[in-house]
Design brief:
Elements (H helix, E strand, L loop, with lengths): L2 H4 L2 H15 L5 E7 L6 H11 L10 E7 L4 E6 L1 H4 L6 H14 L3 H19 L15 E2 L1
Parallel strand pairs: 1-2, 1-4
Antiparallel strand pairs: 2-3
Helix pairs in contact: 2-6, 5-6
């Protein structure tokens, strides 16, 4: 399966809507990046994409990237420094388990949405939305 057919255009719209919904109550920023394959270690590639998307430039260092390498059947959740200093040690593992259970059943859109909404719930605990918050990053799915 290639990155271009991992999600239908309608699926992508639903994932973007989930990002917007999750960000309504938090200053945190959530992005999804999908690519076919990476020769790099997937964690290292996710970190590189995180920086390429300038997710490390948020005011509160509270960006979360869900990186998916479709052909490699791998994904990574990477959170910026501001989040990692505050969330429970098992937070990323429980979020990964949520996504993975859907992915194993072939429910890719549902897995991404579940992971996005779970991330949003935790982000709003530590980074609640405030009157002067602005959406610092695009909500669109990035691809390479």
């Amino acid at each position: 399966m290639s990155a271009s057919i991992f999600l239908t255009p309608e699926d992508e719209q639903e994932v973007v809507a989930a990002i917007k919904q999750a960000e309504l109550e938090t200053s945190g920023e959530i992005r999804v990046h999908i690519e076919g394959h990476s020769d790099l270690d997937h964690f290292k590639r996710a970190v590189a994409v995180f920086h390429e998307l300038k997710m490390d430039a948020t005011a509160k260092r509270n960006g979360v990237l869900i990186y998916v390498a479709v052909q490699d059947k791998s994904f990574v959740i990477y959170g910026d420094q501001g989040i990692n200093e505050l969330v429970a040690n098992d937070f990323w593992n429980t979020t990964m388990d949520t996504i993975q259970s859907h992915f194993r059943a072939g429910q890719f859109k549902e897995g991404l949405i579940a992971g996005i909404l779970k991330s949003g719930e935790v982000l709003k605990q530590y980074f609640p939305w405030e009157e002067d918050d602005v959406d610092e990053l695009s909500n669109d799915i990035s691809k390479s």
